[in-house]
Amino acid sequence: MFQVDLNCDIGESYGRYRLREQKEILRYVTSANIACGFHAGDPGVMRETVRLAIDNGVKVGAHPGLPDLNGFGRREMKITAQEAYDMVVYQVGALQGFLSVHNETMQHVKPHGALYNMAARDASLAEAIAQAVYDISPSLVLFGLAGSELTKAGEKIGLPTAHEVFADRTYQSDGKLTSRSEPGALITDQEQSVSQVVKMVTEGTVISQQNIAVPLKADTVCIHGDGEHALAFAKYIKDTLEKHCISILSIIN
């Protein structure tokens, strides 16, 4: 029997800008990565999303990103390791405040967008982020791209670390995600997407764009909550994984 966590980036509305269907997605995932106000989210959205996650029995994690609302945190910025550390501490602390109101604990931290991708390949940024998470609480789980510098940094410092794979993204032969600026970066066919996930979970490999089988570890699968058909896909992937005898459980049960 295989098992995997299903996580979703959520709470990414801001002010009068509202994303649809994010509430309903919580019925199908086991971990929620809640935006902390830098790339998306605001205090009211954070408060409401934390409550919704708790009501649905979904584990809560912080989703810290770069301070770039206009670019949704997906544009790279030149930052120092110290700045990365400070950004993570600040944003995790903000979300922890809302959890404390409910006497709930945080399960994990997962960087967002460009910060996530930068840390996947830059050891100094990865180590700064891992250190920030460790200094907040060494029991927090660090989510990072499978086999990346970020997961290496988390394991090195002694954090529980979850290797993350993506349902809707293609991979390169070095195990990295295809850049969103490149053709074929996104998988739009849901059957192809779920087939890739099943292979990653049960076989520990993904077929790259170069048609090479790349080994990886799949502890948690990301579902993007801002997609046009995000809700339908969340239900489809959950149902399909269960049909393949894959148990869907949060990282910390």
Write the layout of secondary structure elements.
Elements: E1 2-10, H1 22-25, E2 31-35, H2 43-55, E3 59-63, H3 81-101, E4 108-109, H4 113-121, H5 123-136, E5 141-145, H6 149-157, E6 161-166, H7 190-203, E7 205-207, E8 213-215, E9 220-224, H8 230-243, E10 246-248
Parallel strand pairs: 1-2, 1-9, 1-10, 2-3, 3-4, 4-5, 5-6, 6-9
Antiparallel strand pairs: 7-8
Question: Could you characterize the architecture of this molecule?
Answer:
By secondary structure, the protein is an alpha/beta fold. It is 39% helix and 18% strand. It is built from eight helices and ten strands. The strands form two sheets. Strands 1-2-3-4-5-6-9 form a seven-stranded parallel β-barrel, surrounded by six helices. Strands 7-8 form a two-stranded antiparallel ribbon. α6 (149-157) links the parallel β5 (141-145) and β6. α4 (113-121) crosses α5 (123-136), α5 crosses α6 (149-157) and α7 crosses α8. The mean pLDDT is 94.
| Major sheet description | 7 strands, parallel, barrel
The main sheet orders its strands as 1-2-3-4-5-6-9
Q: Give the overall silhouette.
A: globular
Residues in helices, as a percent range: 25-40%
SSE string: EHEHEHEHHEHEHEEEHE
Count of runs of 4 or more consecutive helical residues: 8
Subunit structure: Forms a complex composed of PxpA, PxpB and PxpC.
Enzyme class: hydrolase
Protein name: 5-oxoprolinase subunit A
Keywords: ATP-binding, Hydrolase, Nucleotide-binding
Summarize the structure.
With 253 residues, this protein is α/β, with parallel strands linked by helices. Helices cover 39% and strands 18% of the residues.
